[in-house]
Amino acid sequence: MSDEVIRVLLADDHPVYRDGLAMLLGSIAGIEVAGTAADGGEAVARTAELRPDVVVMDVRMPGLDGIEATRRIVADSPHVGVLVLTMSEEDATLFAAMRAGARGYLLKGANQAEIVRAIVAVAHGEAIFGPAVARRVAEFFAATATATAPAGSVFPQLTPRELEILTLIAAGRSNTQIASALFLSPKTVRNNVSTIFAKLHVAGRAEAIVQAREAGLGGVTPGGAAKSGP
User: Fold this and answer.
1) Residue 160's domain spans which residues?
2) Does one domain contain both 157 and 107?
3) What's the rounded Cα separation, in Å, for the pair 81 and 119?
4) Which terminal CB of the chain, N or C, has fewer other CB atoms within 10 Å?
5) Are 83 and 168 contained in the same domain?
């Protein structure tokens, strides 16, 4: 990457938004719009051709979506930073983008200063998220971190994955939310939940939550009030 100019490729299937963003970024000193792409497949091809410093990537595009395009770009060109810029606020999309190798994640409501700041950060190898996104990332890892810390003493009969799922159950997450957060299929989560109930000798979710929270899982101290999740 040049010390002076950050070369950017814009990938978005909405021409009005794509062209408008290209015009906006083209007016910023230190940023050059190297090219644009209308879908994920074109983004992968144009990245290989143009070698930009940063790809600003939408998620929902026809053909190859932005998540798979990100995965391929990072695999083929690890020096290229991918900044996801999308309308999607779903946890599943956020964490899928992170797992694919995106260095940043912004919502399309971000203003010009936020987008430029994110591009510069990603170009320099930093990870950056919009304020609302960063809050959800922090909440997710705060909820799951306790799953590993007490593993040696709390519910030793459970596997690490089962303990992780139990922690999210105790935090009030539904099976659907757990599946999205851990990138598991709903069926896999249901099977794990059934196994957890059997190992804990509980009749259902509410009783499992009581046991988990009394053990300090789910962000509630022992003796705290328990309630069943959605």
Assistant:
1) 146-219
2) no
3) 9
4) C
5) no
